[in-house]
């Protein structure tokens, strides 16, 4: 972390450059109002590969910006922002994200947990603005006017997904995919046209066409011939509650999977007890069984924490530190803790399908980039990496020009034992959706790299999810504490496949958008070399 400390009248600021490409610099405080007990946090922000388009997907990318503070040498806390009074520099928009979006602002019970900043007009390339100002209600958090406070500004790249109906399931007949279908004899997909409750029925199905927009039958197919413990059986009759997010409503989705640097920045803001719980190197507290069990680099994960102080990156003789690679060895509990801390929330498997397919008609057996073409299907066409483990890691050979790119078992050759690639590694100035391996809206690595942790529509213990957002704080053990999120002991689903997904029957099924073969698994409470995740935020 690159750090600059500015000593001011009552506050000093830490400045960092973050691994997912967002750079925050020149932080200062201005306009302190000791009567209202507010102050503005001023800084510059930039990131590459930004866009806004009014045609096609009609969406944009954005940075989710939030602030942490500590008084003296105390614990880090989440800063409560005002709902007004922020300054958006020319060429940008700022939208406040409340703790409970769509409800009335309250400085203490429903504050601004962060802001989205994005382009105000169509364009693409590097986005950079100077003089962003966020109004912090420090008095609402009991902070005195003359307190000595350390402040840290964080940023996460996000993608706006508009409110729109979409299809879930792809009409495929392959049994092992277990995709959403309208009936026992009807492979047509579900059509999600609202956030209303869904009645799942034991019906044969209407058989009225793959991309029909009037669907009355929703049929459940368990992830295996025999339902896993806690999962509904094939043909079960039940309801998906209205509060369970279905993907119809507008949302922001993390552009990339949680990177190793993002996880370390999160980890280093925790207390010692919380770190013991979230340690993915040694897992000393006896929590979820860990597969890494080392502080050295393995499976392209270089997270290193000796048991005290700050986590760092373990280096190797021949490779870099893997700061920008997707973070593997994450359980649901780890991902949920990160998202609670960042005031984001986990996604559901219906939201996952919308993030990948968008509003496009379904293509049978499609991957996240919307076709059935996939590169590097044999040993002769594997990728070769340059600058391995560095922020400049790129594909230098066997880069597909007419097929979708993704990191899966048959694709890596010179990587250090195999593992996640740098997030966004396939996107270039000349790539299209297919060759970049991107979802409809521009979200990266929804197929391959690391498994995406999603709440399943087929588990009663997942259907309690209400879509509430993280409150910026964890419990004393370092676990999420959001009312309405399933407990960390509850199994959740896996979608999208991983770098370790292999060929079954001549095709790589797990990477397909609608593959649900691990959607209600009971075996993911252990940390594994190919599980990670990303978060979303409701846009209201």
Kindly describe this structure:
Strand 5 (61-71) and strand 6 (77-78) form a beta hairpin. The longest helix has 10 residues, at 332-341. The strands form seven sheets. Strands 1, 2, 5, 6, 7, 8, 10, 15 and 24 form a nine-stranded mixed sheet that branches. The chain has five helices and 24 strands. The two termini are 33 Å apart. It has two domains: 6-159, no CATH class; 162-540, no CATH class. The protein is globular. With 540 residues, it is mainly beta.
Write the layout of secondary structure elements.
Layout: E1 6-7, E2 11-14, E3 23-33, E4 38-52, E5 61-71, E6 77-78, E7 92-98, E8 112-119, E9 123-136, E10 149-161, E11 166-168, E12 190-192, E13 198-200, E14 238-240, E15 251-254, H1 260-267, H2 272-278, E16 303-304, E17 312-313, H3 332-341, E18 347-348, H4 349-357, E19 384-386, E20 394-397, H5 433-436, E21 451-455, E22 493-495, E23 531-532, E24 536-538
Parallel strand pairs: 2-10, 18-21, 21-23
Antiparallel strand pairs: 1-2, 3-4, 4-9, 5-6, 5-8, 5-10, 7-8, 10-15, 11-12, 13-14, 15-24, 16-17, 19-20, 21-22
What's the short story on this structure?
The protein has helices at residues 260-267, 272-278, 332-341, 349-357, 433-436, and strands at residues 6-7, 11-14, 23-33, 38-52, 61-71, 77-78, 92-98, 112-119, 123-136, 149-161, 166-168, 190-192, 198-200, 238-240, 251-254, 303-304, 312-313, 347-348, 384-386, 394-397, 451-455, 493-495, 531-532, 536-538. With 540 residues, the chain is mainly beta.
Number of strands: 24
Uncertain spans, ≥5 residues at pLDDT below 50? Answer: 1-19
Query: How many H/I helical runs?
Result: 5
Largest sheet: 9 strands, mixed
Oligomer: single chain
